[in-house]
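Study this protein:
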Amino acid sequence: MKTAKLLSSIRRSNRSRVSDDGLRPAARARGGSKGPFEGPFPSRVWALLPVVGALSFAVAFVGTAERSAFSATVTSVPCAAKAKAVIANTSQSFHNAASAVTGDVQAAQQIVHNGGTISGTQTPNTPANLPVVPPPAGATNLGDFSLGSGQTRNLAAGNYVARSFNLNSNSTLTVSGGIVQIWVTGSLSIGGNANNGGVPENLEFLVSSVSGANVNGGAAVSALIYAPTGPVTVGAVVHGSVTGSRTTLNSGGQVVFDATSICPAP
């Protein structure tokens, strides 16, 4: 659009300064020859067109790159689980006093209100039918992963698998370089900081057991917790989303939905 306006302006300016013979006064003084920048459409404009085109392409490319950098990614957590704050896959969802969900809740059975609040839509008696997602080949084996109080560990972007995963109170797990996906074949327990303040999608827990997950009081979590066959209990703040066979939010438990994790439209 800017290029078209520029060319239109140049044409108007050029027409105002040439006579019917297409020559400017300076050209007629030379005996009628046209200089390289004279005539109805100066040659220097043609020379500038590739530059303008290149700049326009560069601007468009940068805009696309920026949009891609901030758009959601399709990861191993199913898109349906990323679309709601809390999902009770096969059972009830309990919301006890002094708990809160900022986002939507879906449950295969009842959504039980015991004093908790839900800001979004509520969809009871609707099984999500979300499957267990097996770990990929080549995932880094963490064994029985545990961080004690005061300990810190960083995990680089990639796929990991652990028999159990335990972050004790006052421990800190950070991630770097992109998305960290951790498959847990046993139990998941979070009492410390897990990607606290980071992008929730950059830390994803996929629990494949019936043991499920616990987010204990005092924890601070930015992550997607996906445990479709195990119960999930939340007693602290989780930025992201929570999926369990049954979900329970106790006093102090909060799930703050991260809309940027929603899968991009196909």
Remarks:
- Residues 1-7, 13-31, 33-41, 44-72 have pLDDT under 50 and may be disordered.
- Residues 2-70 form one domain.
